[in-house]
Write a structure and sequence with these properties.
Elements (H helix, E strand, L loop, with lengths): L20 H11 L12 E3 L11 E5 L2 E5 L8 E7 L5 E8 L18 H5 L19 E5 L2 E8 L3 E7 L10 E4 L4 E8 L5 E7 L5 E6 L11 E4 L12 E5 L2 E7 L8 E6 L7 E6 L10 E7 L5 E8 L5 E11 L2 E4 L1 E2 L6 E2 L3 E3 L27 E3 L8 E2 L7 E4 L13 E3 L6 E8 L7 E8 L4 E8 L2 E8 L2 E7 L4 E9 L2 E7 L7 E2 L4 E2 L9 E8 L8 E11 L4
Antiparallel strand pairs: 1-24, 2-3, 3-4, 4-5, 6-7, 7-8, 8-9, 10-11, 11-12, 12-13, 14-15, 15-16, 16-17, 18-19, 19-20, 20-21, 22-23, 25-28, 26-27, 27-39, 28-38, 29-34, 29-39, 30-31, 30-38, 31-32, 32-33, 34-35, 35-36, 35-37
C-alpha cells in the first residue's frame, strides 16, 4: 500500500529501500532542536508553552540547552525527557525508563492466583493486576560531575534514581534509593562541600523529609528528618525542589492542592531549618487556578524562569513558563501583584534571553512507522507484550496482534501519545484483513471510561463500531481491507468518524464523548486491538500511519 504524500519517501534503508541523504537530514532535524539561531522567530511567547500533559515538570540548564522531565505514571517507556534551546519550544529526546520493572503488575495483567481454585480457573477469569495511577510520579532532574541524574518515586515501591552522560540516554538501570512505599516527590541536592542530600514528601502531601545521601546519589545515609510540617499555614505541602542561592537554602513547593493551590517558597540559612516561607505565585486576578509545582532555572545571563503545570481538566496538567525576579533574596514569580510580595501568571511575556532566537519546534506527533524503532512520542498503556507488536513483520506498518481482554482498559499494547494541543484532528489508516472473530481494533482517546472508534468482527462480518463507557454502537459493514479512522478533539470532547473511500469523505459515528482526567493523566490518542477472552485465537491489524493535525479550538 502506498503511503500518503506527506510520508512518501520517508522510509529508512530496509529490505532494498534506499533513503536519500536529504530525508535523513530532515529526520534528524525533526528529532532535535535546531542549533542555529533564527532571527525571524517571535519575540514574545504565550502560555501555555506546551498545551500537553507533562505533569509535575522539572527543568535544568546544561550549557546552552534546557532539559525537562515529567511524571508518566503507568505509561511505558516511562519518564519522558524533553529538550529546548529557548525554554519555550521543546522536542522529545527520549525516556529514562525503557520499561517499568518495579512489579509484575506493570505488565498488565499482573500475577494470577496460585491457589488450587485460581489455577483451575480460565486464565481470562483470574485476577488481573494493574498499576494505573501508579508508576512514575513527580521526578526531578539534576546535572552533577558530568552526569545527568533523575530521581523519581513510585507510590508502591519506593524512590529510584538513574544516571546518564547524555540526556538522550542511554540511562542506567534504576537504583532503588529508598525501599519504602508511600513516598513522593524526591529531589537531590549536592552542597558546596560535596555533601549530598535527598528531600522528599509523603503520599497524601505530608511533611517534607530530608536525608543525607552518599556522594554517588545511590543510597540515603539515615532514616530522614522531618524539616517542614505545618498543616495549617502550609496545607497539602508537596513537590519540593531544593536549591541554594546567595547562602540561602530554598525549597520551592506547591501548597493547597493540584486544582487551586499556589506556589510557595521556603528559605533558611541552614539546610535543616527552621524555614520561613511565603507564597510567590498565586492566581491573582487571572483565570489560572492552581499555578504551581515545577522547577526554577536561570539562563546564562542570570535571568530567572519557573516552569510549572496548570490543571486543564481532561487535557491533564499542561506546562506554563513564568519570569522570576528576586528582591531581598526572595523570588517573585510571574507578574507582580500590586502591594504584595507574590506574582500572578503571565499570559504572554518577552522571550527568555538565551543568546538568540530559535525555530518554533514542537514535540513529535505524526508517524508513518517506517523507522526501525517506535518514535519517541509513543508510550504503551503498561509494559507491552513484545511478542504482540512489530515494526518488522510488515515494514512500514505497525503490526498489533490481539490479546485477550474484557475491555480496552484491561487490554495490553494500547499505544498512546500525549495530546499536544487544545484542539486536534488525529487520523489513522489500518488494514483489517487479518482480523478474527471476537477481535476489536481502532483509535481511542484513552481515559476512564474510554471511548473509541474501530472495527469489530463477528460471525465473519467486520463492522464499524463506536464505543463509549462500555456501550457499543454498530455502524456499517466493512467490505474493504483498509479504512481510515479519525477523532476530532476540542472542548474536552472527542468526536469520532470513519472513511471507507480512502479518506475522501468521513462519516461521523456516535455521540460526542466527554473526555476525562483519569489515573492522574489527561486523555490521549491511542491505537489498540484486543479480542474476547473466550476467543482462543489471536488476530492481527496493521496500522499504516498516524497523522496529527492541530486545529483551532471550537
Amino acid at each position: 500500500m502506498n503511503k500518503p504524500d506527506a510520508f512518501r519517501g520517508a522510509r529508512h534503508r530496509r529490505k532494498g529501500w534506499l533513503v536519500p541523504a536529504v530525508v535523513l537530514a530532515l529526520s534528524s532535524a525533526l528529532a532535535a532542536p535546531a542549533l542555529t539561531a533564527d532571527p525571524t522567530a517571535a519575540a514574545v511567547y504565550r502560555n501555555p508553552i506546551l498545551f500537553a500533559d507533562y505533569s509535575d515538570p522539572d527543568v535544568i540548564r546544561v550549557g546552552d540547552s534546557y532539559y525537562l522531565v515529567a511524571s508518566s505514571f503507568h505509561f511505558s517507556p516511562g519518564l519522558p525527557v524533553l529538550k529546548s534551546r529557548d525554554l519555550v519550544h521543546w522536542t522529545i529526546v527520549g525516556h529514562v525508563l525503557p520499561k517499568l520493572t518495579f512489579a509484575p503488575e506493570y505488565d498488565l495483567p499482573g500475577p494470577v492466583p496460585t491457589n488450587d481454585t485460581g489455577a483451575r480457573m480460565p486464565r481470562e477469569l483470574r485476577a488481573v493486576g494493574q498499576r494505573y495511577a501508579g508508576g512514575v510520579w513527580a521526578p526531578s532532574i539534576r546535572h552533577h560531575n558530568g552526569l545527568f541524574y533523575v530521581y523519581f518515586p513510585t507510590p508502591n515501591e519506593g524512590i529510584f534514581m538513574s544516571t546518564a552522560k547524555s540526556a538522550e540516554g542511554p540511562w542506567s538501570p534504576p537504583v532503588r534509593v529508598i525501599a519504602q512505599a508511600g513516598l513522593e516527590d524526591p529531589c537531590p541536592f549536592w552542597d558546596d562541600d560535596g555533601q549530598a542530600y535527598l528531600i522528599h514528601g509523603k503520599v497524601g502531601a505530608g511533611p517534607l523529609v530530608l536525608h543525607r545521601m552518599s556522594a554517588d546519589g545511590k543510597t540515603v545515609l539515615d532514616a530522614g528528618t522531618v524539616i517542614v510540617e505545618d498543616a495549617k499555614t502550609l496545607p497539602v505541602l508537596e513537590g519540593p525542589k531544593l536549591y541554594k542561592r546567595n547562602g540561602w537554602y530554598y525549597i520551592f513547593a506547591p501548597i493547597g492542592g493540584v486544582e487551586t493551590g499556589p506556589q510557595a517558597v521556603l528559605r533558611s540559612r541552614d539546610i535543616w531549618g527552621p524555614y520561613d516561607h511565603r507564597v510567590v505565585l498565586e492566581p491573582g486576578a487571572t483565570k489560572f487556578q492552581g499555578p504551581h509545582q515545577g522547577g526554577w532555572v536561570e539562563t546564562p545571563s542570570g535571568q530567572g524562569w519557573f516552569i510549572h503545570f496548570n490543571s486543564a481538566g481532561a487535557y491533564g496538567r499542561i506546562v506554563h513558563l513564568q519570569p522570576v525576579a528576586w528582591k531581598d533574596d526572595w523570588p517573585m514569580i510571574g507578574d507582580p501583584i500590586p502591594g504584595g510580595v507574590s506574582g500572578q501568571p503571565v499570559s504572554e511575556h518577552a522571550m527568555p534571553e538565551v543568546g538568540g532566537r530559535f525555530p518554533a519546534i514542537a514535540p513529535q506527533t505524526s508517524d508513518d512507522f517506517s523507522a526501525r524503532r517506535l518514535g519517541v512520542q509513543w508510550e504503551w498503556n503498561h509494559n507491552p507484550d513484545d511478542k504482540r507488536w512489530s515494526l518488522k513483520a510488515r515494514p512500514g506498518f505497525l503490526r498489533l496482534t490481539s490479546g485477550p481482554a474484557r475491555d480496552l482498559v484491561a487490554a495490553r499494547n494500547t499505544l498512546t501519545q500525549v495530546q499536544q494541543s487544545q484542539a486536534s484532528q488525529v487520523t489513522t489508516r489500518l488494514d483489517v484483513s487479518r482480523m478474527v472473530d471476537g477481535q476489536r481494533a481502532g483509535l481511542t482517546m484513552f481515559n476512564q471510561p474510554p471511548s473509541w472508534i474501530g472495527v469489530v468482527k463477528r460471525a465473519g462480518v467486520r463492522r464499524i463500531v463506536f464505543a463509549s463507557a462500555g456501550v457499543e454502537t454498530l455502524g456499517p459493514a466493512v467490505s474493504s481491507d483498509t479504512l481510515e479512522l479519525r477523532v476530532l478533539v476540542s472542548d474536552q470532547t472527542a468526536r469520532y468518524a470513519f472513511s471507507l473511500d480512502g479518506g475522501a469523505t468521513f462519516t461521523r459515528l456516535g455521540e460526542p464523548a466527554a473526555l476525562k482526567f483519569s489515573w492522574w493523566k489527561g486523555a490521549r490518542p491511542g491505537l489498540f486491538t484486543y479480542h474476547d477472552p473466550a476467543q482462543a485465537k489471536a488476530g492481527v491489524v496493521d496500522f499504516d500511519w498516524v497523522k496529527v493535525k492541530p486545529e483551532s479550538q471550537g
